[in-house]
Amino acid sequence: MLPAPIAWGSGHTIRILDQTLLPAEELYLDLATVDAVAEAIRTLRVRGAPLIGIAAAMGVSLAIPDGQAGRDGRGSEELTAVLSACDTLQATRPTAVNLFWALDRVRTRAREVAARGGDLHSALVAEATDIWNEDRDMCDRIGEAGLSLVPDGATVLTHCNAGALATGGIGTALAPVYRAHREGRRVSVVADETRPLLQGSRLTAWELTRAGVPTTVIADNMAASRLRRGDITCVIVGADRIARNGDVANKIGTYSVALAARAHGVPFYVAAPRSTFDPATADGAAIPIEERSATEVRRAGGSVVAAAAAEVWNPAFDITPAELVTGYITDAGLLTREELGRLV
What we know:
By secondary structure, this protein is an alpha/beta fold. It contains ten helices and 16 strands.
């Protein structure tokens, strides 16, 4: 019952689920160009840090014709096209480190294959598929690592969407929930709606209820009051980048939830694969934060909800300090901040 947000399409295309239309419409698009993939990432048709990396890696393969790499002396031209495609896709979103990690892998593979005159297109497809399969496996291991945090009768609060729609597998933050549900444990989820684009109410609630997991949607400003009630077992969120010191960049509003969880003694966990950890970034202050269009805040559901003369500040992410994180649920196990070094 879990959705498939990305796949290789028929012919020389990539098929994506347009997440901007959910939950009202389930529409799949076939993307045939690098620019189309870049637009899909930029406009959040494809979103979620791991899935962005997968989509970008797949998208690079569209830069050259199927099966034509290295033939007729055009290998150098095709490598140039591939590297240009990597640059185009890398410029779409600045915060999610998975994007840079995946494209660095693609660049390395492309240069190696081009140097020996191999079939560049086939190599790019293979590398992107490897990245996708590895992410699926990492999601499964994250689910296993966090399973003990979701006992029978647990209620998990989450923010934004870090499930199957955001990854190549069963998700990051939702992976322990799906594992517990599959084992027959009674588990429910409280999902923050996640303004301004409502990824919690539109996406998290959609995929969880499809899978049969009881889900309650709350407005973001209700999270502290819900945590105060005492019925939340733990908070589990995803991440777009985790700095070397354990600071976490995630969807705007995550920091508020972490503060409220600390105030009410509720454990706060961050779930992420190795590709989301960025040892090259010392701390959260060094993480670039994407600022998005004011229109996302000015409008809701097609209606204007802000005064035209008012200024708008719309950062897509915030930084949660490592000291607010109880633990990190990773494909290498459940880790403390002091243990993050083993992921490097």
